[in-house]
Amino acid sequence: MTKKLNRRQFVLTGAAAGLAATTARLAAGQAPTVYVPRAVKPVVISSGNGHTRKNGGDKTCVETAFEKIVAGEDVLDALIAGVNIVELDPKDTSVGYGGLPNADGVVQLDSCCMHGPKKQAGGVAALEGVRTPSRVARAVMKQTDHHLLVGKGAQHFARNMGFEVEDDLNTDRSRKLWLDWKRRIDPAHYLDPLKREKYGYEAAQQMMREGLIDPEHFWGTINCNGINANAELCGVTTTSGLAWKIPGRVGDSPILGAGLYVDGEVGAAGSTGRGEANLYGLCSFLIVEEMRRGKHPKDAGMEALKRVRANTIEKRLLNDQGEPSFGLNFYIVDKQGRYAGVSLQPTDARYAVCTEDGPEHVAFDSLLG
Length: 369
Ligand code: ASP
Known about the structure:
With 369 residues, this protein is α+β, with helices and mostly antiparallel strands. The chain folds into 2 domains: 1-35; 43-176 and 217-366, Glutamine Phosphoribosylpyrophosphate, subunit 1, domain 1. It has 11 helices and 13 strands. It has helices at 2-27, 61-70, 75-88, 133-143, 151-160, 172-184, 193-209, 215-218, 275-281, 283-292, 297-311, and strands at 43-46, 109-115, 120-127, 148-150, 222-227, 233-239, 260-263, 267-273, 328-334, 339-343, 350-355, 358-363, 365-366. The strands form 2 sheets. The chain has an 8-stranded mixed sheet with strand order 4-3-2-6-5-1-11-12. The protein has a 5-stranded mixed sheet with strand order 7-8-9-10-13, with helices on one face. α4 (133-143) links the parallel β3 (120-127) and β4 (148-150). The longest helix is centred in the N-terminal third of the chain and has 26 residues, at 2-27. Aspartic acid is lined by residues 219-221, 239, 241-242, 251-253, 272-273, 275. Residues 219-221, 239, 241-242, 251-253, 272-273, 275 line the site of aspartic acid.
C-alpha cells in the first residue's frame, strides 16, 4: 500500500513540477516548451514477458520503463531500457540472447522503435550477433537517414556504432532445442519446401505438446508501448522471430505499421504472434487509424483482428470450426492513456501493464473467445 501511495505521489509531484515550469515560462512571456492538453496518467503496456523476466535483477521491463518515465526520462529510452532486460535474459527463448534460432541454428533478431513526439523511427531485421537489437534499431533512428537496415548491413552498422558483435547468440538451451527439432524432421526436407514447412511445423507442435517449447515462444516477442504525463507516446518491438524459420525470414516485428506503429498525436500499437497474418494487414497501423477515427483502443484492436479473420482463408491456417488456428495479439495505448490488450484466440496468457497502481498481468479481450 505504501508503495502504491509513493508511486502516485511521485507521478503527481512530477506533473506539478512540469506545470510550475510551464507557468513560470508563461509568466516570463515565453511560449511553453510542451503543450500539455490534459493530465495523462502514465502507462506502460507490453506482452506478458514484460512482467515476468528480470534477468537476475529485481525489476521487470514494465516496472523499469514506468519508473524511468515518471522520473522524466525520454519515453522511448525508458521503454528500450525495459525490453533490454528481456533481450538479455537467456531464459526468454523468444527475444534477444538465447532466442530460438532459425532452421540453420542461427539466432536472427528483428526490432523496431518509434518516437511519437520526434516523429522518428528505426529498425533492424535478420540481425545476427547483437544481443540488444532494440538498441541498434534506436541507433538506426538516431544516426541515419534510414528506417530499416537488414542482415549483414545491419550487423556492419552495429559494429561501427560500437556494439559488441558475437559469433553465436545461442545458449545451451536454445542450441539443444534446435538440435532436437532438427532430429525430428525429414532429413530430406530441403528437397521439398512444402514438405519441409509441414514437417517443420509438426515437429514444433510436437515439441510444444511435450513441454519442450513454451507455445508463447514458438512465436514470441516483446512489444512495449508507453505514455508519460505530457502525453508523449513511444513504442518498441523486439524478437528472435518465428522459431526454426527459413534463414532470412522477417516477420512483422521490425516492420513499421505491422509489428509497431506510433502516431504521437493518436496512439501506439504493437504485436506478438503470427507475423505473416499481421504483415498482410499492417494491423498496428490499422489500429492507430481506427483510434484516430475515435475508437477506444479495445475496439480498434478488435477491428484489426476482424480484418485478420476475414483475410485468413487458406485451409492450412484454419481449425475445424473454420476459424484462424494461430495466435495474434496487440498491445495498445491511446493519447489519453487508455489501453487494451486484444488477442485473436481465447488464451490464458496475459499481457503486462504498469500504472501508478503498480505492475500487473491482465487478461486479454479476445475476438474468438
Ligand atoms: N511476430 C513475431 C514474428 O512473426 C513472432 C511473435 O511475436 O511470436 O516474427
